[in-house]
Amino acid sequence: KPPDPAVFREYLRLRHVFLARPAGADYGKAELDLDALAARATDFAPVYGLLALNLATHFERGRERQALPEASRALQLDPDDAYAQAALGELACERDEWNDCLKQLRATLARNPADPVMNSLVGLRLARLGYREQALHLFQAGYAMDPLSYWAVANLGTQLDTLGRHTEAQHYLDALPGLDDKPNPVTDAMRWRNAVWRHDLAGARDIAARMPDSFARKPLYLAFSAALADPACWPQALAELRSAQAASDEPLALQLQAPHPDETMALRVFGQAGQFDGKLLWVPEYAAIRQAPAFSAFLRRTNTLAYWNANGWPPQCKPDSDGARCN
């Protein structure tokens, strides 16, 4: 039967918040609203599918284990619910079970080719696995469908960065502040990296200076901006990085911008990279990390080599003994 109009309207509002708005934008309240809607709309599968996808992709930290039961509930109501099916694929991705992951996500995309979110989800996983041009095609499709989606714009811009097309990427990344209603460190970090890769060091310094004072990493970005402009400042910048890293439970992404990044720490960054940042593994400027001896072990540990052997290798990598050689 058709859904209650009020339920459907609320579902569309929450779908937009989670899947088109930037990180942190009303998420806390939206999470509570989605839980309340799920409790109220017990016969409307898309609500449970959206909740399952949110949980599977870490929108609600600490609740990931609830994704499977929510997806199962949605599929009981509607076996074809797209986001519940996508949640199952995402759970396989999180376990580095890439064959199951991509099989599920691609099948869901094939049934829902006009859904920009599905184009983005498949693109993100292909981008992480190194299939850069395939991912770009999907991000371009998602952007064409929804050019006002923060994540559609961000995915396209960062994937162009991954391909070394930094000047083209700037057009999209510089549009992100206009799609947000407040300063956003995630946006700032994307734009700062792009400016560095374009050798616009004055622009990078400007972006760092305008980061919100509440952003804990702002001093590090300022220190790195100064060191990139004046190499004599690197000892101070790296000392600040070591201090910040010692106080953090997670590896800091700025490790990747150091002149000689620590290979183990850099791979820890990618080992813990979220769904969105995984694509940065293939940025041309990070070539030294990919050529480190530990990189092949990383590819084995994350089942990336196994996926390539079964499905074809990305053009930037070749088999090398029991590992890989990636340019």
Overall pLDDT: 93
Radius of gyration: 20 Å
Quick one: biggest sheet?
Answer: 2 strands, antiparallel
Distance between the termini: 55 Å
Number of strands: 2
Strand order of the largest sheet: 1-2
Description:
The structure is a single chain. By secondary structure, this protein is mainly alpha-helical. The protein has helices spanning 5-20, 27-40, 45-56, 67-77, 82-94, 98-111, 116-128, 132-145, 150-162, 166-173, 185-197, 201-209, 218-229, 234-246, 263-271, 287-290, 293-301, 304-311, and strands at 317-320, 323-326. A two-stranded antiparallel ribbon has the order 1-2. α7 (116-128) runs antiparallel to α8 (132-145), α10 (166-173) packs antiparallel against α11 (185-197) and α11 packs antiparallel against α12 (201-209). The chain starts with a helix and ends with a strand. The model has no long low-confidence stretch (mean pLDDT 93).
